[in-house]
Every structure is written in C-alpha cells, then in structure tokens.
Design brief:
The chain is of the alpha+beta class and 103 residues long. Strands 1-3-2 form a three-stranded antiparallel beta sheet. It has helices spanning 4-8, 13-20, 24-32, 49-58, 74-78, and strands at residues 10-11, 39-41, 44-48. The protein has a domain at 4-58. Helix 2 crosses helix 3. A hairpin with a 2-residue loop joins strand 2 and strand 3. The chain is elongated and about 65 Å long. The chain contains five helices and three strands. The longest helix has 10 residues, at 49-58.
Amino acid sequence: MVAASAIMSFFDIDEAAEFLRIKPGTLYAWVHQRRIPFRKHGRRVVFFKPDLEGWSHDQAVAPVESPTFLKRGFGARLFGRNRSLKTSGTAEEPQDSLSRKGE
C-alpha cells in the first residue's frame, strides 16, 4: 500500500501553479521548454513537490556583495557618472520639416 504522504506530494498543473504563485499558462510554457522538472503519467503532466521545492531553491539569485556596478559600467552610465559631454562647437538652427526648398 502507498503512503498517503507520497500521493499528496504530486501536483497537477493548477496545484503546481498555485504552489509556485504563477499562472498555469506560464507553467505549461515552462514544461514545453523543459525549464522545470515534471513527470508524465500517460498524457498527464504532474509535478513532484520535492522536485519543485529543489528547483525553486536553485532559482534563487545570490545577493551582490558591493554595488560596484555603480562605479563603472552600466550603472555609471545609467546614473550619469563618468559621462563625457561632446559639443560640436557650432550652433545650427533646427530646420523646419514643413518648410519647402526655396522659401
């Protein structure tokens, strides 16, 4: 006889989506892309709870130790640091796009 805890640890699409707090459509896409662990019982897609917990744990992003991205690179450009202003030295008047040649 199979233990009740083993039976309860399988989720269908709706239960797994609720567990992960995503839409079922997103979960179907992830299954199609094989981005998430799943099992097939015949044509039915099921998810084993410990697999989902482990997968979710592996998706965690490590915190950044220091904000070095602000000192150089993208963050510096984003916030205007190390920005060089280029000027041509000549001032041209903007042309009116509606004006015709010869007028």
